[in-house]
Amino acid sequence: MKYLTVDFGSTYTKLTAIDSELKEVIATSSSFTTIETNVLDGFNAAMDKLNKAVGGKFDYDEMLCCSSAAGGLKMVALGLVPELTSKAARMAASSAGAKVVKTYAFEISNKEQQEIYDICPDLVLLCGGTDGGNKEVIIANAKKLCTIDRNFAVIVAGNKNAADEIDELFKNSDKDYVITDNVMPNFNELNIGPAKEQIKDLFIRKIIEAKGLTTAQKMTKYKIIPTPLAVMNGCELYSKGTKNIPGHGDLMAIDIGGATTDVYSMATGEPTMEATMVKGLPEPYSKRTVEGDLGMRYSLRHVLDAIDITQVEKETGVSEDKIRSWVEHCTANPETIADKGSENELIEEGLGKATVSLAVQRHCGTISSVYSPMGQFYSLTGKDLMNTPFVIGIGGVIINSNNPDKILSGAKYDLNHAESAKPKNPRYFIDARYIFAAMGLLSSINPDLALTILNKEIKQI
User: Which NCBIfam families match (predicted)?
Assistant: First the structure.
C-alpha cells in the first residue's frame, strides 16, 4: 500500500508519500496554500514537487487529508462560570482542533453580543449549568445567539433540563445547530467527548465548503479533519503506543504555525512537589491549547506586541528597527523564508523562542505558595509539567532553523516566571519533515505503521 497524506495548512500545503512495505516516508513536499483562489492550485504545485522527488508519478492507493487553511476552525465558547463550564467548553473545542478565539461566562451582555457579531465565528459552543442545575443563563444566551445576524453553527452542550426550550428557540431561527450531552453533567466532572465529536462533524459539514475544500473531500473516502486534531492523534500515538509497539510516555509538542501556535501535552500533570493541593477542573491526559495571537507570519505583529522585544534584541544582537522591519515584511509576504546564516534567521530564532516561551507558559499550570497554621504548602491549578522528559518541535520556523534547540529552549522552566510549571530539564527533539499530522492521519487506518515511521523520523537535537 502507498499512502498520500495532505495537510492544507494556513501557510503551506504539505504532502507526505508513505510506502507501507518499506515502512517509511519516501518523500515530502510543500507549496504555498492558495486559499485566496483555489486550494487545489497549491495542492497541484506540491504534487508536482512530490512527483519529481520520487522520480515519476506517485500512484497512491489511499489519500488522507487535514486542514487548517485560512486559520482553521474559529470558535467562540459560552459557559456559566469561567472556572467550570467555560473551561470545559474550551477543552472540548481545543481537543477537537478548533481555535477558540473567545470564551464568555454568565449571561452575555449586549456589548458581548456585538463582540460575537464582530468576531464572526464559524462555530459557537453553548454550555452552562450542570444537569438539573442553573438553566436560566444558558437559555438567555441561546436567545441572544438567535438574534446575532451571522451564519455560524451552534453546538449546545449544557444543562439537559434546558434542552427542550433551547431546541424550540433554535428551530425558530435560521441557525444550524445540534444539541448534545453536557460537557459538565455533574460538578467537577468533565464529559467533553460528545461535544468534541460534534465539532468534528460540523467541521466537515460546514467548514470544508467554506474554505473551498469540497473538491479535495471528493478525492478521498476519508473525512477531512482539522490539522490540530491530526497532530494530537499523532502525539497520542507516540506517547501511548499501540497494542504491538510501546509508546514513549509523557511528552510535550509545540507546533508553531503561520497563524497560531499549538501546544500539546501528553501527561497526567499531577503535582511533582510534596504538600501540593490541586485546584480547579481535572486536566485531560491529552491536552491541546491554541494561541490564536501567536504565529510566525499572519500573527507576527501580535507576537511583537506580546513579548519583550528588548530581550529578543539582546539575545540576537539585531537592532529593534531591523526586527520590526522583518516582522512587517513577513506579515505582508507570509511565504517568506529567512536565508540560512542571515541576520533575518537570527530574528526568526529570537521571535520563535519568545513565541514558544509564552505559548508554553499559557499551556502549563501555575503553582503558588499558601501559608496556613500548619505551615507552607502549595496550590496547583492546571498541569504540572516540570518533570516532562522531552519536548518535540514542529513547524516551519523550527524545521528551517540551524538552531532549533535555541527556539525550543523557550519551553524550559524560567525563574522569571517561577509560578509556571514548565519542564525543568527536557531533551529536545524535532519533527524535521513535519510528519506528526501525517502520522496522526495514518494512525486511523494503520497505527502500527504510523508509529514505526514516527520512531524513525523523530530525532533528538
Answer: accessory_GlmL, glmL_fam
pLDDT of 291 strictly over 90: no
**What CA–CA distances, in Å, run from 362 to 293, 294, 345, 413?**
12, 11, 26, 13
pLDDT band per the 50, 70, 90 thresholds, residue 92: confident
Q: In this structure, are residues 75 and 236 in contact, taking their beta carbons and an 8 Å threshold?
A: no
Joined grid coordinates for residue 209: 465548503
Packing angle of the helix pair 309-316, 320-332 (nearest 10 deg): 110
* Order of strands across the sheet that contains 24-32: 24-32, 12-19, 2-8, 62-67, 225-226
CATH top class, domain 74-205: alpha beta
Topology (CATH) of 1-69+212-223:
Nucleotidyltransferase; domain 5 (3.30.420)
Provide the b/e sequence for 391-413 (b: ≥16 CB within 10 Å): bbbbbbbbeebeebbbbbbbbbb
Strands across the sheet containing 276-279: 276-279, 375-381, 366-372
Q: 22 is written with which cell numbers?
A: 518499506
**Residue 209 pLDDT greater than 80, yes or no:** no
Give the closest residue to 442 by CA, choosing from 430, 459, 454: 454
Q: Is 240 in a helix, a strand, or coil?
A: helix
Q: What is the pLDDT of residues 374-431, one digit of tens each?
A: 778 888 989 999 999 999 999 888 988 889 999 999 999 999 889 999 999 999 999 9
Report angle CA 304, 432, 207 to the nearest 5 degrees.
65
For 354-380, the pLDDT digits (tens) are: 999 999 999 999 998 888 777 788 889
In the chain, where are the structural domains located? 1-69+212-223, 74-205, 251-430
DSSP-derived pairing of the beta strands 176-179 and 24-32: unpaired
State the cell numbers at 337. Answer: 523564508
Pairing of strands 276-279, 286-291: unpaired
d(CA 68, CA 65): 11
Q: In the sheet that 286-291 helps form, which strands lie side by side, from edge to edge?
A: 286-291, 261-266, 251-256, 390-394, 427-430, 459-460
pLDDT of residue 304: 87
Per DSSP, helices labelled H in 148-252 are: 163-171, 193-202, 208-210, 214-218, 227-240
- What is the spatial distance between Cα 449 and Cα 443, in angstroms, rounded to a whole number? 8
Q: What is the pLDDT of residue 95?
A: 65
Q: Give the span between the Cα atoms of 36 and 33, in whole angstroms.
A: 9
User: What's the CA gap between 312 and 300, in Å, rounded?
Assistant: 14
